[in-house]
Amino acid sequence: MELRVALPALLRRFPTLRLAVPYEELRYRELAPVNGVLSLPVTW
Questions:
Q1: Which of 5, 19, 22, 42 shows a CA-CA span of 20 to 30 A to 13?
Q2: So what's the pLDDT on residue 2?
Q3: Is 18 helix (H, G, I), strand (E, B) or coil?
Q4: Helices vs strands, H then E, count in the chain
Q5: DSSP state of 10
Q6: What is the model's pLDDT at position 35?
Q7: Low-confidence residues of the chain: pLDDT under 70
Q8: Measuring CA to CA, which residue among 16, 11, 21, 8 is closest to residue 44?
Q9: Any idea where the domains of the chain sit in the sequence?
Q10: Is 6 helix (H, G, I), strand (E, B) or coil?
Q11: 3-state helix, strand, coil in the chain (%, to 5)
Q12: What pLDDT score does 39 carry?
């Protein structure tokens, strides 16, 4: 629920926010109880 509020607010605050690396280079957690990326490099 927090992400439903936080992500749109973040994108409104930083409208040029984008990935700093190609999507294909993102590394994901494996065998973790919570899914997600290991890091999320962004630029604006």
A1: 22
A2: 83
A3: strand
A4: 1, 2
A5: H
A6: 85
A7: none
A8: 16
A9: 18-44
A10: helix
A11: 35, 15, 50
A12: 94
**Cα–Cα nearest to 17, from 36, 40, 39, 42:** 42
Strands 42-43 and 18-19: antiparallel
Tokens of 20: 């700093």
The whole-number pLDDT of residue 34 equals 82
CA–CA gap between residue 34 and residue 29 (Å, rounded): 8
pLDDT score, position 31 = 83
**pLDDT, position 3:** 82
**Paired strand residues for 19:** 42
Amino acid, single-letter form, for residue 29: R
CA end-to-end distance (rounded Å), the chain = 25
